Design the sequence.
């Protein structure tokens, strides 16, 4: 049994028979990953044997649950190589992490006419959160354009800085194109202008090692469910110097030191940003997921996924009418492939097989991919399309999965 076969045994859902097809070919990992039994079991164990509300209890179970929750925070700190657990804020996911920064950093440091730099390939969560701030405070959105093959125009990026630039907020890896952005350069250039950077790590944390100190990013956001962890939990890393200086996001229990009707004082970091009962069972699940990924090791994950992506790009490009979006160079292309297949030019038809048709028909063959705009409508507009089919890979995917995808696409294409 090879390593991938062993890994697959940890993911019971991969054994599922769907529409009589076996095994399930799950290629929708950029939307959410499957969960290994280690994650599910740790959470079940906590609900059965440890469950109690954290932080406020003097009793045994509350203290145990608190210990587990804080140990999970330490696991996240280690995973990102943050300096301190004060810099690790638990949120509900990348979306909430970005909204927190847009809202609180915006409130503290941005006024009418100040600018945030985003890119043309951002997920809606990294666009709309800033538009909400725009509506409240009149800030401006400046957008880094992309090349036709989906790479950031770094020459244009540099030109966007001026005395009103307050923050840069850019994705590490595109959830549509798989583009791996040069975030080291993005951060360095921003810092040369004295501007902090938020990195959207939703699509990078599952695939590559992150060291926030080495990157020197000011904020970093990711979601548990995209890295083999549970839904409903995510992380905002923030440098202490920033988190200290921005106001709380939500008000409630946990985030306060003292409350009176006249004046409330706030808790220390990171609790200042964690109003209400946290999802302490999900934090355990997230920590087990990060342990799981670390035990496989990013060297192995990267090598495996690079091999899968290269194999998929090569096999898919052999399909007649195949149009793959994103960078051609495998070094710049993570394990996410967006594509459309041209309709044969007969009976005056042109265009592409609709992504929804492709996705629906592949599903009937037991192949799960994602279709649509992938929460990136401005990017779709830039590419001049309405949507794509997207296959995305994880550590449990195999060459057989890709062979099945290729055979499936060919079969669907023949129906048109
Ligand atoms: C690049 C990127 N950013 C942000 C998000 C939002 O993540 P979540 O829905 O987990 O908050 C996603 C999810 O697809 C994403 O791919």
Sequence:
């Amino acid at each position: 049994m090879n390593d991938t076969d062993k890994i697959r045994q940890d993911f019971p859902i991969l054994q599922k028979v769907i529409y009589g097809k076996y095994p399930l070919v799950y290629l929708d990992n950029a939307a959410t990953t499957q969960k290994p039994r280690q994650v599910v079991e740790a959470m079940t164990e906590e609900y059965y044997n440890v469950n109690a509300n954290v932080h406020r209890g003097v009793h045994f179970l509350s203290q145990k649950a608190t210990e587990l929750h804080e140990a999970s925070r330490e696991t996240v700190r280690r995973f990102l190589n943050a300096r301190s657990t004060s810099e690790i804020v638990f949120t509900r996911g990348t979306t909430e992490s970005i909204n927190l920064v847009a809202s609180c950093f915006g409130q503290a440091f941005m006024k009418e006419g100040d600018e945030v730099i985003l890119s043309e390939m951002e997920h809606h969560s990294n666009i709309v959160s800033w538009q909400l701030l725009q509506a409240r405070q009149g800030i401006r959105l400046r957008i880094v354009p992309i090349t036709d093959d989906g790479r950031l125009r770094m020459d244009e990026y540099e030109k966007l800085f001026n005395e009103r630039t307050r923050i840069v907020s850019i994705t590490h890896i595109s959830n549509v194109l798989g583009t791996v952005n040069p975030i080291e350069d993005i951060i360095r250039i921003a810092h040369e202008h004295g501007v902090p950077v938020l990195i959207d790590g939703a699509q990078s944390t599952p695939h590559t090692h992150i060291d926030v100190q080495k990157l020197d990013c000011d904020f970093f956001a990711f979601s548990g469910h995209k890295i083999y962890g549970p839904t409903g939990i995510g992380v905002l890393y923030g440098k202490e110097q920033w988190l200290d200086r921005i106001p709380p996001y939500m008000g409630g229990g946990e985030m306060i030191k003292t409350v009176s009707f006249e004046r409330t004082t706030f808790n220390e970091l990171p609790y200042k940003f964690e109003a209400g009962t946290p999802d302490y069972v999900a934090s355990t699940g997230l920590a087990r997921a990060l342990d799981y990924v670390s035990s496989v090791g990013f060297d192995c994950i990267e090598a495996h996924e690079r091999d899968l992506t290269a194999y998929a790009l090569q096999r898919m490009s052999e399909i007649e009418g195949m149009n793959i979006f994103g960078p051609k160079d495998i070094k710049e292309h993570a394990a996410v492939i967006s594509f459309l297949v041209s309709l044969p030019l007969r009976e005056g038809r042109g265009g592409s097989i609709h992504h929804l048709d492709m996705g629906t028909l592949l599903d009937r063959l037991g192949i799960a991919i994602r279709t649509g705009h992938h929460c990136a409508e401005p990017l779709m507009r830039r590419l001049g399309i309405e949507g794509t089919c997207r296959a995305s890979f994880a550590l449990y995917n195999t060459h057989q999965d890709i062979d099945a995808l290729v055979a499936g696409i060919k079969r669907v294409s023949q129906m048109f």
Remarks:
- The chain is about 40% helix and 15% strand.
